Amino acid sequence: MDLLGWGVALVCPALFGVGFVMLAPPHDNYAAARRCFWVSAIILWGFAVAWGVRENYAFWVRATICGALAAVSAVALMMALRVVYQREKAISAPVAEVAPKPAEIDKLKSLHDLYHEDFPNYMKLFATFNQRTQEPNFGIDGTLYYDFRARAKFLSFYFPAVPHQYEWIRGTSDNIPAMIESLEKTTASVKEPGDTVATSSKDIPFSNRIYIYYEGDFEPRQVANLLDVYKKHGYALMLRGNDYQTLRLLGGK
Question: Which of 104, 128, 170, 173 is the most buried (most CB within 10 A)?
């Protein structure tokens, strides 16, 4: 191989290498990379033509070798330019913003949020019952709901994560009448279509249904004990803790 051949053998791979370096961060110079690939291919094509004219081998030998060099350089150029195109496309492609699904929105909601959002179609009266303890004081949220069509009202409470939470929920069963009386300091009247007179919230009987939202989990025996304590008072208790929140996160209602 003469000096020209050695030069081509060194320059062409070197230009290809420089082209790929131009593609990599922090350069990201796609135009420079494209020029390197083209120049390398043109040099190889020129060398193939010059070699075919200069050498005295049989024509078919020269044609075969020149064609092979041209084909190799063309394939290498095509693949290199394809890499450049894919890199440019990946960088310039817009990022689509996906709107969150309802179940994903629920993932942002706490159990306290769910307590306030449940039963949206009923009239309600709300109050916070402050508890004075040796630990830091806390409040129990209470809501009285009115179903005027069914002529029934029911209660819900929210207990934060506090020491002796189980005992507080158990003890609340003794104070339900007083809590209802405190909540009903405000009254309202509703007249359903077709009714001759309005119905006062004071005239709506208590259905004995009570929903308690609490931060945490109870053991099965504790749940059974609470249900039994409230049942002895004549109440139908529904407990909603972390498992209820998890169900809502998964899209259950």
Answer: 173
